[in-house]
Amino acid sequence: MRGGLPFASGKQPSPAPVSVFKKVLLADIANSIPVGAMVFEKSLNILLLGSGGREHALLQACLASPLTAAVAVAPGNGGMETEAPCHPLNLEDIPATVALAQKLAANFVIVGPEVPLALGVADALRAAGIPVYGPGRDGAQLEASKNHTKAFLARHNIPTACGARFTDTAAAHAYLATRPLPIVIKADGLAAGKGVVIAKTADEARQAVGDMLDKRVFGASGAEILIEDFMDGEEASIMLMVCGRRYVMLPPSQDHKRVGDGDTGPNTGGMGAYAPADVVTPEVRQRVVEEIIEPTLNGLADEGVDYRGTLYIGIMVTAEGPKVVEFNVRFGDPECQVLLPLLETDPVQLMLDCATGALEPASVRLKTGACVIITLAAAGYPNTVRKGDTITLPETLPSGTQILHSGTVRRAGQLLTNGGRVLGAVARGATLAEAVKAAYALADKIHFAGIHYRRDIAARQLLRK
Ligand code: GLY
Fold first, then answer.
1. How far is the CA of 9 from the centre of ligand 1 (A)?
2. Is 332 in the pocket of ligand 1 (CB under 6 A)?
3. Mean pLDDT throughout 59-75?
4. Measured from the CB, is residue 135 less than 6 Å from ligand 1?
5. For 119-136, what is the mean pLDDT?
């Protein structure tokens, strides 16, 4: 629709003439588009914000959507830049983000990571008349402040661990003395996936409190802390695409946070994931809907938060039932990479519908089967990461598989490692076992010095069968 703009063309499944695709209610967000405007095939100029594997998966969805006329990314990575124009951008610079969206004449923005959401990028874009997939600053508080979330959960009677907030070390130590071990100490603010310590001994717990409150090892994020009882059980990720009180629940998934097989070694950003995760049985799912999702979305709406975007609910399936571990206000990474391939309905249509108020959950269709991602990590990860190793990829990909880039860069025509989580090997299969086999066959064809990855992604579920 806006020829000549620096966007990549969307790959269209058919050359059919432009047709009316869907009627949506746009006026409440996009001042420039009247209520009841028609959204046409190839009508979206999308700006996608982010640079990780999650955003590469979102880019692939944009490129495959019949709604996409063009898509640009900011800032992107070494894999994304071969598929779409990538624009340099500091995602914490909200005025610069709005200016870029306007310069590109974007009429839909998808926000990948949490930091710009917490800084109010969705509010600023909406104020400029651009529909956005991602909550405003008020909704993003669910991830930006663990103490805000704890208070929200308490107000709405939503099951979670017992906990208390502290800014004073002596008071935190006194509280620790009254609680059982292990115990969880969390920095209140955003800490890039760090900022959570599970202390097994009283000394470890006191040390973690001191590190956060006194030494500020997580900076201002640790000026306030949350001390929570440890929840025993199995974790799962519940990803919702939310439009106020309406939502689509994607298949439950499971991340693998520890670096080593058998859940050993330090925590990472995520070494692999699979979906659907059977730990969320139909009974657990029903309880999640009734005891967690409905009170959360009604609570947000009742408190005046108009939430439009992903709500990621980390749950612990305990002996007493599912409980909230955390909320995130964006897709999980690497969970997103295994959820988008399981959607039969166009993910871009769904994100647009959430953004514009037109979501019709009953019309959403999922694919059968399972999907797996194996994270391929760089030398040193998750500690000091070596960058600059040359990456070799297979020339062809078997059908149902994808290689998604996270920490890569292209220099002088060479693809190099540029972060801890470098690539994701993704495969969809009729069964989980088939998907796992295909994902590992793909991972084994990817090479760079220092590559390491877990060999047991999804093993817990496969062994349960
Ligand atoms: N997979 C964990 C996260 O995205 O926070």
1. 30
2. yes
3. 98
4. no
5. 98
Q: What digits encode the pLDDT tens for the residues 255-280? A: 999 999 999 998 898 999 999 999 99
* Residue 359 and residue 353 in contact, taking contact as beta carbons nearer than 8 Å: yes
Count of other CB atoms within 10 angstroms of residue 438: 20
Question: 384 CA distance to ligand 1 centroid (A)?
Answer: 20
Longest Cα separation, the chain = 70
23 has pLDDT over 50: no
Question: What local confidence, expressed as pLDDT, does residue 188 receive?
Answer: 86
Domains of the chain, residue spans: 26-137, 168-223
CATH, domain 168-223, list 1.10.3720.10, 3.30.365.10, 3.30.1490.20, 3.20.20.240: 3.30.1490.20
Distance 346 CA to ligand 1 centre (A): 23
Does the domain at residues 26-137 carry the CATH identifier 3.40.50.20?
yes
Q: Rounded to whole angstroms, how far apart are CA atoms 355 and 359?
A: 8
**Ligand 1 pocket test target in 146, 255, 311 with most atoms within 8 Å of CB:** 255
Q: How far is CA 180 from CA 197, 201, 231, 232, in A?
A: 15, 10, 11, 12
Cβ(143) – ligand 1 distance below 6 Å:
no
Ligand 1 neighbourhood includes 188 CB (under 6 angstroms)? no
Cα end-to-end distance, the chain, whole Å: 50
Report residue 212 as tokens.
């956060």
Model confidence pLDDT, tens digit, residues 327-386:
999 999 999 999 999 999 999 999 999 999 999 999 999 999 999 999 999 999 999 999
Whole-number pLDDT of residue 38? 58
239 touches 339 (CB < 8 A): yes
- Listed in sequence order, the residues at least 6 apart from 212 whose beta carbon sits closer than 8 Å to its beta carbon are 185, 187, 195, 218, 222, 225
* 188/94 Cα distance (integer angstroms): 23
**Whole-number average pLDDT of the chain:** 91
Which atom belonging to ligand 1 lies closest to the Cα atom of 330?
Answer: 4
Give the ligand 1 atom nearest the CA of 54.
4
Atom 3 in ligand 1: which residue has the minimum CA distance? 332
